[in-house]
Design a protein that fits this description.
Blueprint (H helix, E strand, L loop, with lengths): L1 H68 L1
């Protein structure tokens, strides 16, 4: 009887450890995915801001150089 109880306890402990490891793994996976997503959004926004700034500078330089040529 006590061997069966010890086996049951050991199985429950292993199941609990397995659940804990699954939760930790899932949490880590979600953290990495969310971090990658946030970094991608920030990188895309920085790229768009640089493009917008370059687009604003180019016409000003062209207009300024044409004004100086006249």
């Amino acid at each position: 009887m006590s061997e069966k109880l010890a086996t049951n306890i050991a199985m429950e402990v292993n199941a609990a450890i397995s659940r804990i490891m699954s939760v930790i793994g899932l949490s880590f996976t979600r953290y990495v995915f969310n971090l990658f997503h946030v970094c991608s959004v920030v990188n895309r926004n920085l790229f768009l801001l640089c493009c917008i700034q370059k687009c604003r500078d180019v016409p000003l330089r062209i207009a300024g150089s044409q004004y100086l040529m006249r």
